What does this fold into?
Amino acid sequence: MPIEAFASQNCSIARTLSIVGERWTLLVLTELFLGRRRFDEIQAERPIASNILSQRLATLVEEGIAERHRYSEHPERFEYRLTDKGRELLPVQLALLRWGDRYMAEAPGPPVESIHTECGHAFEMVPTCSHCGEEIKPKEVRAELGPGASPAQRERAKRRGERRERERERAA
Amino acid sequence: MPIEAFASQNCSIARTLSIVGERWTLLVLTELFLGRRRFDEIQAERPIASNILSQRLATLVEEGIAERHRYSEHPERFEYRLTDKGRELLPVQLALLRWGDRYMAEAPGPPVESIHTECGHAFEMVPTCSHCGEEIKPKEVRAELGPGASPAQRERAKRRGERRERERERAA
It folds into this structure.
């Protein structure tokens, strides 16, 4: 179930978080990306309680992010595979990984390396611009209201701009 | 305070989530990236309770992700600015945004557009390989143990590989 307080915001980040914004959900996704698709495999890697893992997997299936496949008939057992919609969450994982490798890994280095199979090398994800192809650096991004902005969001943006203008005049 | 169950995992994604993996923390970061740095500005945009906003801002400051700056003396008022460590979280935000714009935006389109100020155009973040510069597609990534993998992680990976091998033989 999407978390209503987030799903109801007119914001693509909040809405994404309403579905996959729970820590364990994001880590269960990590496991699926790492090819560990079975309940026992995931539990062997992560200190996650069975009821939480079941719930998180059920959420991913409900939201069309993963699919349940039977891999054994006797006993009946299932594994979970990412759908295309789920695989589209790879950039979220690579971005979390990049920051963690930089700021949270211990001295020997990261515990996992990502290999780009097309070129065969370990890589770090570089965020680039879909228009010019250059790397997106944090100070080179500006937000503008998009076509889906609500009247209230437009009004607040206008008032914020006016207030900033007055502050600049007062400071000058 | 980092969440211990996540900080204690030998995984860069889990450790990142131990600090910024709470939904409101990620949305407060969104506000700071959007240039809304003041308590009142953030609360005008988001349905967030004052005590939660205070806590999340305090966490970001404690972790060196944001800094508190006084912008008014009488009355004394502070705003919050991202540090370099905080700005390095931009790819996480752009990745969440990209997925949300694709899967969660309503018919008129996204409420916010990101402009790459270097080229002047609206963009979507494209994840690329730091080695070859090509776009990273979900099926072109493989994970390998890195230098910081623990002996237990190595042992589990080995056992997993052996089991997969046996299953392939049985299926053949």
User: Anything to note?
Assistant: Chain B touches chain A through 94 residues (CB under 8 Å). Helices of chain B lie at 4-7, 12-20, 23-33, 39-45, 50-62, 84-87, 90-103, 151-171. The first helix of chain B runs from residue 4 to 7. The radius of gyration of chain B is 21 Å.
